[in-house]
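HUMAN: Spend a minute on the protein record below and explain its fold to me.
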Amino acid sequence: MKIVFKTGRIEGIKTDAIAIGLFEKEGVDRYKGLDKAIDGLISNLIKKGNFKGKADEALFLIAPAKLPAKRILLLGLGEKEKFTIDKLRQGAAKAGQEMRAKGIKSFALSLPSPTPLPQADGARRKGQAVAEGLILGLYQFDEYKTEKKNGKKINEAVIVLEKKTAEKDIKKGVEIGTILAESANFTRDLVNRPSNDKTPIMLADEARRMAKRFGLSCKALDEKEIRKLKMGGLIGVSKGSKEPPRFIILEHNKNKKGIDTIVIVGKAITFDSGGISIKPSENMEKMKYDMSGGAAVMGAMMAAAQLKIPLRIIGLIPASENLPSGTAQKPGDVVRMMDGKTVEIISTDAEGRMILGDALSYSKKYKPDAVIDLATLTGACVIALGNDAIGMMGTDDKLKEKVRRAGELSYERVWELPLWDEYGELIKSDIADLKNVGGRPAGTITGGYFLSRFIEGCPWVHLDIAGTAWEEKGRPYKPKGAAGVGVRLLSELFLNYK
Protein backbone atom coordinates (compact mmCIF):
# COMPACT_ATOMS: atom_id res chain seq x y z
CA MET A 1 0.00 0.00 0.00
CA LYS A 2 1.25 3.44 -0.97
CA ILE A 3 0.65 6.38 1.40
CA VAL A 4 0.49 9.77 -0.35
CA PHE A 5 -0.48 13.33 0.56
CA LYS A 6 -2.88 15.86 -0.84
CA THR A 7 -3.58 19.38 0.31
CA GLY A 8 -7.13 20.70 0.34
CA ARG A 9 -10.56 20.04 1.77
CA ILE A 10 -11.47 16.39 2.03
CA GLU A 11 -14.75 16.92 0.17
CA GLY A 12 -12.70 17.91 -2.88
CA ILE A 13 -10.54 14.78 -3.04
CA LYS A 14 -11.27 12.43 -5.94
CA THR A 15 -11.00 8.85 -4.69
CA ASP A 16 -13.04 5.70 -4.12
CA ALA A 17 -13.92 6.72 -0.58
CA ILE A 18 -13.14 9.22 2.16
CA ALA A 19 -12.93 8.56 5.90
CA ILE A 20 -13.53 11.19 8.56
CA GLY A 21 -13.13 10.78 12.31
CA LEU A 22 -15.85 12.21 14.56
CA PHE A 23 -15.79 12.60 18.31
CA GLU A 24 -18.67 11.69 20.58
CA LYS A 25 -20.99 14.65 21.31
CA GLU A 26 -18.94 17.03 19.15
CA GLY A 27 -21.10 17.35 16.07
CA VAL A 28 -19.80 17.98 12.59
CA ASP A 29 -18.10 21.38 13.04
CA ARG A 30 -14.74 20.16 11.73
CA TYR A 31 -16.35 18.97 8.49
CA LYS A 32 -18.89 21.71 7.77
CA GLY A 33 -17.77 21.93 4.15
CA LEU A 34 -18.30 18.22 3.57
CA ASP A 35 -21.64 18.23 5.39
CA LYS A 36 -22.84 21.18 3.33
CA ALA A 37 -21.73 19.47 0.10
CA ILE A 38 -23.98 16.49 0.89
CA ASP A 39 -26.96 18.60 2.05
CA GLY A 40 -26.46 18.15 5.80
CA LEU A 41 -26.62 14.35 5.72
CA ILE A 42 -23.96 13.85 8.41
CA SER A 43 -25.38 16.43 10.83
CA ASN A 44 -28.87 14.95 10.38
CA LEU A 45 -27.61 11.46 11.16
CA ILE A 46 -25.93 12.76 14.32
CA LYS A 47 -29.01 14.77 15.32
CA LYS A 48 -31.27 11.72 14.97
CA GLY A 49 -28.88 9.49 16.90
CA ASN A 50 -28.02 7.26 13.94
CA PHE A 51 -24.34 8.01 14.45
CA LYS A 52 -22.99 8.86 17.91
CA GLY A 53 -19.22 8.96 17.40
CA LYS A 54 -18.52 6.21 19.92
CA ALA A 55 -15.13 4.51 19.73
CA ASP A 56 -14.94 1.91 16.91
CA GLU A 57 -18.34 2.95 15.52
CA ALA A 58 -18.34 2.91 11.72
CA LEU A 59 -20.97 3.88 9.18
CA PHE A 60 -20.62 3.88 5.38
CA LEU A 61 -22.61 6.34 3.28
CA ILE A 62 -23.13 6.44 -0.48
CA ALA A 63 -21.81 9.79 -1.62
CA PRO A 64 -24.04 11.96 -3.86
CA ALA A 65 -23.00 12.30 -7.48
CA LYS A 66 -21.71 15.85 -7.01
CA LEU A 67 -18.99 14.66 -4.59
CA PRO A 68 -15.72 13.44 -6.19
CA ALA A 69 -15.59 10.47 -3.78
CA LYS A 70 -17.95 7.53 -4.21
CA ARG A 71 -18.39 6.66 -0.52
CA ILE A 72 -18.00 8.26 2.90
CA LEU A 73 -16.94 6.43 6.04
CA LEU A 74 -17.93 7.98 9.36
CA LEU A 75 -15.56 6.73 12.01
CA GLY A 76 -16.28 7.09 15.74
CA LEU A 77 -13.33 8.23 17.84
CA GLY A 78 -14.95 8.27 21.29
CA GLU A 79 -14.55 11.09 23.80
CA LYS A 80 -12.36 13.96 22.64
CA GLU A 81 -10.75 14.34 26.08
CA LYS A 82 -9.51 10.74 25.93
CA PHE A 83 -8.11 10.90 22.40
CA THR A 84 -4.41 10.02 22.37
CA ILE A 85 -1.68 9.18 19.88
CA ASP A 86 -2.58 5.53 20.28
CA LYS A 87 -6.28 6.29 19.67
CA LEU A 88 -5.16 7.97 16.45
CA ARG A 89 -3.19 4.84 15.58
CA GLN A 90 -6.27 2.73 16.29
CA GLY A 91 -8.51 5.04 14.25
CA ALA A 92 -6.26 4.79 11.20
CA ALA A 93 -6.23 1.00 11.54
CA LYS A 94 -10.02 0.87 11.80
CA ALA A 95 -10.42 3.08 8.71
CA GLY A 96 -8.15 0.83 6.67
CA GLN A 97 -9.89 -2.34 7.81
CA GLU A 98 -13.36 -0.98 7.01
CA MET A 99 -12.22 0.11 3.56
CA ARG A 100 -10.66 -3.25 2.80
CA ALA A 101 -13.80 -5.07 3.92
CA LYS A 102 -15.75 -3.12 1.28
CA GLY A 103 -13.22 -3.91 -1.44
CA ILE A 104 -12.13 -0.27 -1.75
CA LYS A 105 -8.75 0.13 -3.44
CA SER A 106 -8.03 3.80 -2.80
CA PHE A 107 -9.26 6.09 -0.04
CA ALA A 108 -8.51 9.38 1.65
CA LEU A 109 -8.64 10.02 5.38
CA SER A 110 -8.69 12.97 7.70
CA LEU A 111 -8.22 12.28 11.37
CA PRO A 112 -7.92 14.90 14.12
CA SER A 113 -4.86 15.46 16.24
CA PRO A 114 -4.71 14.27 19.85
CA THR A 115 -4.84 17.10 22.36
CA PRO A 116 -2.23 17.82 23.47
CA LEU A 117 0.30 16.40 21.03
CA PRO A 118 3.94 16.17 22.12
CA GLN A 119 5.24 19.73 21.89
CA ALA A 120 8.42 19.38 19.85
CA ASP A 121 7.45 16.73 17.32
CA GLY A 122 3.65 16.70 17.27
CA ALA A 123 3.16 16.75 13.50
CA ARG A 124 5.75 14.00 13.00
CA ARG A 125 4.12 11.88 15.70
CA LYS A 126 0.73 12.28 14.02
CA GLY A 127 2.06 11.11 10.65
CA GLN A 128 3.91 8.24 12.28
CA ALA A 129 0.83 7.08 14.18
CA VAL A 130 -1.37 7.12 11.07
CA ALA A 131 1.17 5.11 9.03
CA GLU A 132 1.67 2.60 11.84
CA GLY A 133 -2.08 2.18 12.30
CA LEU A 134 -2.75 1.64 8.60
CA ILE A 135 0.08 -0.84 7.98
CA LEU A 136 -0.22 -2.75 11.25
CA GLY A 137 -4.01 -2.83 11.04
CA LEU A 138 -4.08 -4.20 7.49
CA TYR A 139 -1.67 -7.04 8.29
CA GLN A 140 -2.80 -10.52 7.28
CA PHE A 141 -0.92 -13.80 7.53
CA ASP A 142 -2.10 -15.97 4.66
CA GLU A 143 1.16 -17.63 3.63
CA TYR A 144 -0.37 -21.08 4.12
CA LYS A 145 -3.83 -20.34 2.70
CA THR A 146 -4.55 -21.89 -0.68
CA GLU A 147 -7.24 -19.26 -1.11
CA LYS A 148 -6.05 -15.82 -0.04
CA LYS A 149 -8.34 -13.76 2.16
CA ASN A 150 -10.82 -12.54 -0.46
CA GLY A 151 -7.97 -11.06 -2.47
CA LYS A 152 -8.92 -7.63 -1.11
CA LYS A 153 -6.05 -5.19 -1.01
CA ILE A 154 -5.81 -1.43 -0.63
CA ASN A 155 -3.48 0.14 -3.17
CA GLU A 156 -3.39 3.72 -1.90
CA ALA A 157 -4.20 5.74 1.21
CA VAL A 158 -4.28 9.52 0.90
CA ILE A 159 -3.60 11.65 3.97
CA VAL A 160 -5.46 14.92 3.48
CA LEU A 161 -3.76 18.06 4.76
CA GLU A 162 -5.74 21.29 4.89
CA LYS A 163 -2.53 23.34 5.12
CA LYS A 164 1.00 22.71 3.88
CA THR A 165 2.66 24.13 7.00
CA ALA A 166 3.25 20.78 8.73
CA GLU A 167 3.54 18.65 5.58
CA LYS A 168 7.30 18.10 5.85
CA ASP A 169 7.08 16.88 9.45
CA ILE A 170 4.04 14.69 8.79
CA LYS A 171 5.76 13.13 5.78
CA LYS A 172 8.82 12.38 7.93
CA GLY A 173 6.54 10.75 10.49
CA VAL A 174 4.90 8.62 7.80
CA GLU A 175 8.34 7.51 6.60
CA ILE A 176 9.35 6.45 10.14
CA GLY A 177 5.98 4.86 10.86
CA THR A 178 6.12 2.86 7.65
CA ILE A 179 9.56 1.47 8.49
CA LEU A 180 8.53 0.57 12.05
CA ALA A 181 5.26 -1.06 11.03
CA GLU A 182 6.76 -3.04 8.15
CA SER A 183 9.54 -4.24 10.47
CA ALA A 184 6.95 -5.31 13.05
CA ASN A 185 5.01 -7.14 10.33
CA PHE A 186 8.22 -8.93 9.31
CA THR A 187 8.49 -10.08 12.92
CA ARG A 188 4.82 -11.13 12.93
CA ASP A 189 5.42 -13.27 9.85
CA LEU A 190 8.30 -15.07 11.56
CA VAL A 191 6.34 -15.73 14.75
CA ASN A 192 3.17 -16.85 12.95
CA ARG A 193 5.10 -19.31 10.80
CA PRO A 194 4.81 -22.94 12.02
CA SER A 195 7.84 -24.45 13.67
CA ASN A 196 8.44 -26.99 10.90
CA ASP A 197 9.25 -23.98 8.70
CA LYS A 198 11.38 -22.09 11.21
CA THR A 199 13.90 -24.41 12.78
CA PRO A 200 17.02 -22.75 14.24
CA ILE A 201 18.81 -23.27 10.92
CA MET A 202 15.90 -21.76 8.97
CA LEU A 203 15.78 -18.80 11.36
CA ALA A 204 19.49 -18.21 10.81
CA ASP A 205 18.94 -18.34 7.05
CA GLU A 206 16.14 -15.76 7.37
CA ALA A 207 18.46 -13.53 9.39
CA ARG A 208 21.12 -13.72 6.68
CA ARG A 209 18.64 -12.81 3.95
CA MET A 210 17.31 -9.87 5.93
CA ALA A 211 20.81 -8.66 6.80
CA LYS A 212 21.94 -8.79 3.17
CA ARG A 213 18.87 -6.84 2.06
CA PHE A 214 19.35 -4.03 4.59
CA GLY A 215 23.12 -3.83 4.88
CA LEU A 216 23.66 -5.49 8.25
CA SER A 217 26.49 -7.80 9.22
CA CYS A 218 25.31 -11.33 10.05
CA LYS A 219 26.86 -14.58 11.13
CA ALA A 220 25.33 -17.67 12.68
CA LEU A 221 27.49 -19.89 14.87
CA ASP A 222 26.89 -23.61 14.41
CA GLU A 223 26.87 -26.29 17.10
CA LYS A 224 30.63 -26.84 16.94
CA GLU A 225 31.32 -23.13 17.42
CA ILE A 226 28.75 -22.92 20.23
CA ARG A 227 30.46 -25.81 22.03
CA LYS A 228 33.81 -24.09 21.59
CA LEU A 229 32.38 -21.06 23.42
CA LYS A 230 31.26 -23.45 26.20
CA MET A 231 27.64 -22.29 26.02
CA GLY A 232 26.35 -25.12 28.19
CA GLY A 233 22.91 -23.54 28.56
CA LEU A 234 22.22 -23.41 24.82
CA ILE A 235 23.76 -26.84 24.17
CA GLY A 236 21.81 -28.41 27.05
CA VAL A 237 18.42 -27.14 25.86
CA SER A 238 19.14 -28.39 22.33
CA LYS A 239 20.05 -31.95 23.36
CA GLY A 240 16.52 -33.33 22.96
CA SER A 241 16.03 -32.21 19.35
CA LYS A 242 17.48 -33.47 16.10
CA GLU A 243 17.55 -29.83 14.97
CA PRO A 244 20.91 -28.31 15.92
CA PRO A 245 21.08 -24.90 17.64
CA ARG A 246 22.33 -21.67 16.14
CA PHE A 247 23.67 -18.50 17.74
CA ILE A 248 22.79 -15.60 15.43
CA ILE A 249 24.77 -12.34 15.55
CA LEU A 250 23.51 -9.25 13.69
CA GLU A 251 25.41 -5.95 13.69
CA HIS A 252 24.51 -2.41 12.63
CA ASN A 253 27.36 0.12 12.26
CA LYS A 254 29.77 -2.72 13.01
CA ASN A 255 33.01 -0.83 12.44
CA LYS A 256 32.00 2.67 13.52
CA LYS A 257 33.91 4.15 16.44
CA GLY A 258 32.99 6.81 18.98
CA ILE A 259 29.31 5.91 19.23
CA ASP A 260 27.36 4.16 21.97
CA THR A 261 26.96 0.41 21.74
CA ILE A 262 23.63 -1.27 22.51
CA VAL A 263 23.19 -5.03 22.57
CA ILE A 264 19.69 -6.48 22.18
CA VAL A 265 19.18 -10.15 22.98
CA GLY A 266 16.15 -12.23 22.00
CA LYS A 267 15.06 -15.68 23.13
CA ALA A 268 14.37 -17.90 20.11
CA ILE A 269 12.96 -21.26 21.11
CA THR A 270 11.47 -22.17 17.74
CA PHE A 271 9.22 -24.72 19.45
CA ASP A 272 8.84 -25.32 23.17
CA SER A 273 7.30 -28.60 24.28
CA GLY A 274 8.74 -28.14 27.77
CA GLY A 275 11.24 -30.93 27.17
CA ILE A 276 11.16 -33.78 29.72
CA SER A 277 9.07 -31.46 31.95
CA ILE A 278 6.52 -31.59 29.17
CA LYS A 279 3.71 -29.06 28.89
CA PRO A 280 0.01 -30.00 28.76
CA SER A 281 -1.13 -30.71 25.19
CA GLU A 282 -3.85 -28.02 25.27
CA ASN A 283 -2.64 -24.91 23.43
CA MET A 284 0.81 -26.40 22.89
CA GLU A 285 0.52 -25.45 19.20
CA LYS A 286 1.02 -21.83 20.25
CA MET A 287 4.50 -22.63 21.52
CA LYS A 288 5.76 -21.79 18.04
CA TYR A 289 5.60 -18.23 19.42
CA ASP A 290 8.38 -18.88 21.95
CA MET A 291 10.86 -17.29 19.56
CA SER A 292 9.05 -13.92 19.69
CA GLY A 293 11.97 -12.24 21.46
CA GLY A 294 14.44 -13.35 18.80
CA ALA A 295 12.05 -12.31 16.02
CA ALA A 296 11.65 -8.89 17.66
CA VAL A 297 15.43 -8.46 17.68
CA MET A 298 15.51 -9.24 13.95
CA GLY A 299 12.71 -6.74 13.27
CA ALA A 300 14.38 -4.05 15.38
CA MET A 301 17.69 -4.55 13.57
CA MET A 302 15.85 -4.27 10.24
CA ALA A 303 14.32 -0.97 11.39
CA ALA A 304 17.62 0.38 12.76
CA ALA A 305 19.35 -0.19 9.44
CA GLN A 306 16.64 1.62 7.46
CA LEU A 307 16.45 4.50 9.94
CA LYS A 308 20.26 4.84 9.85
CA ILE A 309 20.37 4.96 13.65
CA PRO A 310 23.68 6.58 14.78
CA LEU A 311 24.41 3.84 17.32
CA ARG A 312 26.33 0.59 17.16
CA ILE A 313 23.62 -2.03 17.66
CA ILE A 314 24.26 -5.73 18.06
CA GLY A 315 21.47 -8.30 17.98
CA LEU A 316 22.12 -11.67 19.63
CA ILE A 317 19.66 -14.52 19.06
CA PRO A 318 20.25 -17.93 20.67
CA ALA A 319 18.02 -20.34 18.71
CA SER A 320 17.01 -23.83 19.75
CA GLU A 321 14.17 -26.35 19.93
CA ASN A 322 13.11 -27.73 23.33
CA LEU A 323 11.91 -31.30 22.82
CA PRO A 324 11.89 -34.53 24.86
CA SER A 325 13.88 -37.54 23.68
CA GLY A 326 16.31 -40.15 24.93
CA THR A 327 19.12 -37.60 24.66
CA ALA A 328 17.23 -34.68 26.23
CA GLN A 329 18.38 -32.75 29.26
CA LYS A 330 16.74 -34.05 32.46
CA PRO A 331 15.55 -32.52 35.73
CA GLY A 332 18.41 -32.87 38.20
CA ASP A 333 21.15 -32.39 35.60
CA VAL A 334 23.81 -29.78 36.30
CA VAL A 335 24.94 -27.53 33.45
CA ARG A 336 28.03 -25.33 33.23
CA MET A 337 27.25 -22.01 31.53
CA MET A 338 29.53 -19.95 29.29
CA ASP A 339 30.78 -17.80 32.17
CA GLY A 340 31.58 -20.89 34.29
CA LYS A 341 28.59 -20.77 36.64
CA THR A 342 26.83 -24.06 37.29
CA VAL A 343 23.06 -24.45 37.15
CA GLU A 344 20.94 -27.28 38.54
CA ILE A 345 18.05 -28.04 36.19
CA ILE A 346 14.86 -28.26 38.22
CA SER A 347 12.53 -27.89 35.23
CA THR A 348 13.47 -28.38 31.60
CA ASP A 349 10.53 -26.06 30.80
CA ALA A 350 12.57 -23.15 32.20
CA GLU A 351 14.79 -23.32 29.16
CA GLY A 352 14.61 -19.71 27.96
CA ARG A 353 16.71 -18.38 30.81
CA MET A 354 19.35 -21.01 30.07
CA ILE A 355 19.94 -19.92 26.49
CA LEU A 356 19.64 -16.24 27.44
CA GLY A 357 22.18 -16.65 30.26
CA ASP A 358 24.81 -17.70 27.72
CA ALA A 359 23.82 -14.92 25.30
CA LEU A 360 24.04 -12.29 28.03
CA SER A 361 27.49 -13.54 29.00
CA TYR A 362 28.53 -13.29 25.35
CA SER A 363 27.16 -9.73 25.11
CA LYS A 364 29.78 -8.44 27.54
CA LYS A 365 32.54 -8.94 24.96
CA TYR A 366 31.22 -5.82 23.18
CA LYS A 367 31.70 -3.64 26.30
CA PRO A 368 28.14 -2.34 25.76
CA ASP A 369 26.65 0.88 27.09
CA ALA A 370 23.31 -0.91 27.40
CA VAL A 371 21.98 -4.46 27.13
CA ILE A 372 18.28 -5.26 26.68
CA ASP A 373 16.83 -8.73 26.39
CA LEU A 374 13.34 -9.72 25.29
CA ALA A 375 11.78 -13.09 26.03
CA THR A 376 8.51 -14.92 26.35
CA LEU A 377 10.04 -16.05 29.60
CA THR A 378 7.32 -16.86 32.14
CA GLY A 379 3.65 -17.74 32.24
CA ALA A 380 3.74 -16.05 35.64
CA CYS A 381 4.09 -12.69 33.86
CA VAL A 382 0.72 -13.26 32.16
CA ILE A 383 -0.85 -13.97 35.56
CA ALA A 384 0.73 -10.87 37.09
CA LEU A 385 0.25 -8.31 34.31
CA GLY A 386 -2.20 -9.84 31.83
CA ASN A 387 -1.86 -9.06 28.13
CA ASP A 388 -1.38 -5.28 28.22
CA ALA A 389 1.94 -4.77 29.99
CA ILE A 390 5.49 -6.01 29.47
CA GLY A 391 7.23 -7.01 32.67
CA MET A 392 10.44 -5.02 33.13
CA MET A 393 13.38 -5.57 35.46
CA GLY A 394 16.83 -4.10 35.32
CA THR A 395 19.98 -2.85 36.98
CA ASP A 396 20.24 0.70 35.64
CA ASP A 397 17.67 3.40 36.44
CA LYS A 398 18.55 5.62 33.47
CA LEU A 399 18.19 2.74 31.03
CA LYS A 400 14.92 1.65 32.61
CA GLU A 401 13.56 5.18 32.22
CA LYS A 402 14.55 5.25 28.54
CA VAL A 403 12.79 1.92 28.00
CA ARG A 404 9.73 3.15 29.89
CA ARG A 405 9.57 6.28 27.73
CA ALA A 406 9.94 4.22 24.54
CA GLY A 407 7.12 2.00 25.76
CA GLU A 408 4.80 4.97 26.20
CA LEU A 409 5.61 6.36 22.74
CA SER A 410 5.07 3.01 21.02
CA TYR A 411 2.22 2.00 23.35
CA GLU A 412 4.13 -1.20 24.05
CA ARG A 413 4.10 -0.27 27.69
CA VAL A 414 6.28 -1.71 30.44
CA TRP A 415 5.72 -2.15 34.15
CA GLU A 416 8.67 -2.54 36.49
CA LEU A 417 8.97 -5.43 38.92
CA PRO A 418 11.52 -5.48 41.78
CA LEU A 419 14.85 -7.19 41.47
CA TRP A 420 15.76 -7.34 45.17
CA ASP A 421 18.48 -9.63 46.46
CA GLU A 422 15.94 -11.47 48.60
CA TYR A 423 14.54 -13.06 45.44
CA GLY A 424 17.96 -14.54 44.76
CA GLU A 425 17.52 -16.78 47.79
CA LEU A 426 14.78 -18.65 45.92
CA ILE A 427 17.14 -19.84 43.18
CA LYS A 428 20.02 -21.01 45.34
CA SER A 429 20.91 -24.64 44.73
CA ASP A 430 22.24 -27.16 47.22
CA ILE A 431 24.60 -28.70 44.67
CA ALA A 432 25.30 -25.94 42.12
CA ASP A 433 25.68 -22.16 41.99
CA LEU A 434 22.05 -21.67 40.91
CA LYS A 435 18.92 -23.61 40.11
CA ASN A 436 16.87 -22.65 37.09
CA VAL A 437 13.53 -22.18 38.89
CA GLY A 438 12.62 -21.04 42.37
CA GLY A 439 9.12 -22.47 42.70
CA ARG A 440 5.75 -20.78 42.18
CA PRO A 441 6.31 -17.60 44.25
CA ALA A 442 7.44 -14.57 42.19
CA GLY A 443 8.12 -16.72 39.11
CA THR A 444 8.63 -13.75 36.77
CA ILE A 445 11.00 -12.04 39.18
CA THR A 446 13.11 -15.11 39.90
CA GLY A 447 13.41 -15.64 36.14
CA GLY A 448 14.70 -12.09 35.79
CA TYR A 449 16.97 -12.45 38.80
CA PHE A 450 18.47 -15.60 37.28
CA LEU A 451 19.36 -13.62 34.14
CA SER A 452 20.88 -10.80 36.18
CA ARG A 453 23.57 -13.19 37.41
CA PHE A 454 24.99 -13.42 33.87
CA ILE A 455 25.16 -9.71 33.03
CA GLU A 456 26.73 -8.29 36.18
CA GLY A 457 28.61 -5.04 35.58
CA CYS A 458 26.58 -3.91 32.54
CA PRO A 459 23.55 -1.57 32.38
CA TRP A 460 20.81 -4.10 31.65
CA VAL A 461 17.05 -4.36 31.24
CA HIS A 462 15.01 -7.54 30.91
CA LEU A 463 11.61 -7.46 29.18
CA ASP A 464 9.24 -10.38 29.73
CA ILE A 465 6.88 -10.30 26.74
CA ALA A 466 5.05 -13.56 27.49
CA GLY A 467 1.70 -11.79 27.86
CA THR A 468 2.04 -9.30 25.01
CA ALA A 469 3.67 -11.24 22.16
CA TRP A 470 0.50 -13.10 21.11
CA GLU A 471 -2.92 -11.50 20.51
CA GLU A 472 -5.83 -13.80 21.29
CA LYS A 473 -8.88 -11.70 20.39
CA GLY A 474 -7.78 -9.15 17.82
CA ARG A 475 -7.59 -5.38 18.39
CA PRO A 476 -7.62 -2.39 16.03
CA TYR A 477 -4.01 -2.71 14.84
CA LYS A 478 -3.28 -6.12 16.36
CA PRO A 479 -4.98 -8.89 14.38
CA LYS A 480 -5.14 -12.31 16.02
CA GLY A 481 -1.80 -14.06 16.27
CA ALA A 482 1.69 -12.63 16.58
CA ALA A 483 1.69 -9.02 17.81
CA GLY A 484 5.23 -8.14 16.71
CA VAL A 485 5.77 -6.62 20.14
CA GLY A 486 9.16 -5.14 20.94
CA VAL A 487 10.08 -3.90 17.47
CA ARG A 488 8.53 -0.45 17.80
CA LEU A 489 9.55 -0.17 21.46
CA LEU A 490 13.21 -0.83 20.67
CA SER A 491 13.05 1.45 17.63
CA GLU A 492 11.69 4.31 19.76
CA LEU A 493 14.51 3.67 22.21
CA PHE A 494 17.06 3.92 19.41
CA LEU A 495 15.47 7.08 17.95
CA ASN A 496 15.40 8.85 21.32
CA TYR A 497 18.43 7.28 22.99
CA LYS A 498 20.35 10.46 23.78
